[in-house]
Design goal:
The complex is a heterodimer of chains A (about 300) and B (about 190).
Chain A lengths: L12 H18 L13 E6 L5 H12 L3 E6 L12 H10 L4 E6 L4 H8 L3 E7 L5 H15 L6 E5 L6 H12 L3 E5 L15 E3 L2 H4 L5 E4 L15 H8 L3 H4 L7 E3 L12 H4 L6 H20 L9
Parallel strand pairs in A: 1-2, 1-3, 3-4, 5-6, 5-8, 6-7, 8-9
Helix pairs in contact in A: 1-5, 1-11, 2-11, 5-6, 5-11
Chain B lengths: L10 E8 L1 H18 L6 E6 L3 H16 L5 E4 L29 E9 L3 H13 L4 E9 L11 E5 L6 E6 L1 H4 L3 E7 L5
Parallel strand pairs in B: 2-3, 2-4, 4-5, 5-6
Antiparallel strand pairs in B: 1-8, 7-8
Classes of the chains: A alpha/beta (about 300), B alpha/beta (about 190).
Chain lengths: ~300, ~190
């Protein structure tokens, strides 16, 4: 189907639908007593993480294990060869020499997965690169939305918050636009990149003016670790203007969803009570992530080496 | 995207070996054989292997229901994730596995359209055993074309059809292909 997954740019609506349909079938396995499938026996998947992660790494690890692949976790921390000064390229070649079939990579630099895909023969899956993209997050989000609305075309999706530093926003805009949804980016002007209009999304600086029309309100995490300058006055002011609280939820359509990629800053972009409403599907997003990652590993590693026979 | 279960269009029809009536009679006989061998319908579960085993299983279950007057559980099994040729060909499109919840202690009758190398059936064994611990697994097929690569045999066969390895057998079913027929043909340049 495709050798690497680097960006949502590479996926057509048909590709996305195939990944989602496959995930739908694989999700059944999660509900039965024996949750393991023999499909990827003998394959090895390496999680190569240069940035902190809990849910993405665990989700990829569990997805690979559910399909019987062997999993290696490499965190570039003080205990690894990176602390001794090993370069990204040398680390990649070391993994290649050990014979891994897929590398799941998260890196602080945009484009690191693309670079990696040029160095190694293994499949590369982007698990988040800098401010660039986080395609598996977008796929699991689209899967979660499709679960509720069946068809994404014509849906109004607001993505609110720190769009500037958000790879989740970039991947989601691309995927949602490909699937025919109307996307509006909402946040303080300092956190909405000026080129965002060229992504095919609308821009608004006022959450209250769009909240009544949306089918999905997707809240982005305020990324304290990426913001190097003061981009909004205070958490309190951010919450008052762009956070989702029960007062704003009351204006939403009755069946509209609240989503968040996690980890949540409760009281900043989302209030604690809103995060626990039935319309908040944050935990569905997490469990759907497992099915999406199983689907991708199956479609990318379960295929023929050369060309696609299907 | 290829049609489910179809390997490409390198198939030139040589003969039609079963028509709609032949298929109906064969399935009715298989249905009676299953009940006779099981000494009744107790514990029976009919499970079709996707793609074309699934409608066959439904028909057999409906047949048994009509002459025994019982509602027989039936289901469909997708064995793609259990195949031994994962990685040798493109990833297959997955379909839903719908098997009655509890297989423990039941007699599972697997149903498929064509029995050939036996590798699909081997994958189905593994898939079934991950879902439960049946008392027994039986196998019913519409066509047995020979050329087994594993020590597997069918308990109930609609038609034995000796073929050469250069030939291919296709089963058409109304539910999927719009007609009932069994075709034999030559694979153009295909490998056995």
């Amino acid at each position: 189907m495709f050798k690497h997954l680097l960006s949502m740019d590479q996926l057509s609506a048909d590709d996305i639908t195939r990944v989602l349909d496959t995930a739908e079938s694989l999700r059944q396995v999660t509900d039965r007593p024996i949750k393991k499938l023999p499909t990827l026996r003998g394959r090895t998947v390496c999680n190569l993480f240069y940035e902190a992660s809990t849910r993405t790494r665990i989700s990829f690890e569990l997805a690979a294990k559910r399909l019987s692949a062997d999993v290696i976790n490499f965190s570039a921390d003080s205990k690894s060869s990176v602390a001794k000064g090993e370069s990204f390229k040398d680390t990649a070649w070391t993994l290649e020499a050990m014979g891994v079939d897929a590398i799941v990579v998260r890196h602080g630099s945009s484009g690191a997965p693309l670079q990696l895909s040029r160095w190694v023969k293994a499949s590369v899956l982007n698990a988040g690169d800098g401010w660039h993209e986080h395609p598996t997050q977008a796929l699991l989000d689209i899967f979660s939305i499709r679960e509720h609305f069946k068809d994404l075309s014509g849906l109004n999706v607001a993505i609110a918050g720190d769009v500037l530093h958000s790879r989740v926003a970039r991947s989601n805009v691309k995927g949602l636009v490909t699937m025919g949804a109307n996307v509006v980016l909402v946040g303080p002007p300092t956190l909405i990149p000026i080129q965002a209009r060229s992504w095919g999304a609308e821009i608004s600086y006022d959450l209250d003016s769009v909240i009544e029309d949306v089918d999905v309100c997707y809240l982005l995490r305020v990324q304290k670790e990426r913001a190097t300058e003061q981009l909004f006055p205070s958490n309190r002011e951010y919450a008052a203007n762009w956070g989702l609280d029960s007062r704003r939820v009351a204006k939403m359509k009755p069946d509209a969803l609240v989503m968040h990629p996690g980890p949540m800053n409760r009281g900043v972009e989302i209030s604690a009570d809103v995060s626990e409403l039935p319309r908040s599907i944050v935990l569905d997003q997490v469990s759907n992530g497992l099915a999406i990652r199983m689907s991708l590993l199956y479609l990318m590693l379960g295929g023929a080496e050369e060309g696609d026979v299907s | 995207m290829a049609q489910p279960g179809r390997k490409g269009d390198d198939f030139a029809v040589k003969a039609r070996v079963m028509e709609s009536d032949d298929i109906r009679r064969a399935l009715t006989r298989i249905a009676h054989e299953i009940v006779e061998a099981n000494k009744g319908t107790d514990d029976l579960v009919i499970v079709g292997i996707r793609t074309r085993g699934a409608p066959l299983a439904d028909r057999i279950a409906a047949d048994i229901a009509s002459f025994e007057g019982v509602d027989l559980p039936s289901g469909a099994l997708d064995v793609s994730l259990y195949r031994d040729d994962v990685g040798l060909r493109g990833p297959r499109n997955l379909e839903a596995t719908t098997v009655p919840a509890d297989l423990d202690g039941r007699v599972v009758v697997l149903v498929d359209d064509v029995l050939f190398t036996g590798r699909t059936i081997r994958a189905a064994f593994e898939a079934i055993l991950d879902l439960g611990r049946p008392k027994a697994i039986k196998l019913a097929v519409l066509v047995d074309r020979g050329h087994r690569e594993l020590p597997i045999r069918a308990d109930h066969v609609g038609k034995n059809l000796p073929t050469s390895s250069g030939e291919d057998v296709r089963v058409h079913l109304t539910e999927i292909d719009g007609e009932d027929a069994v075709l034999i043909g030559r694979k153009d340049g295909g490998v056995g």
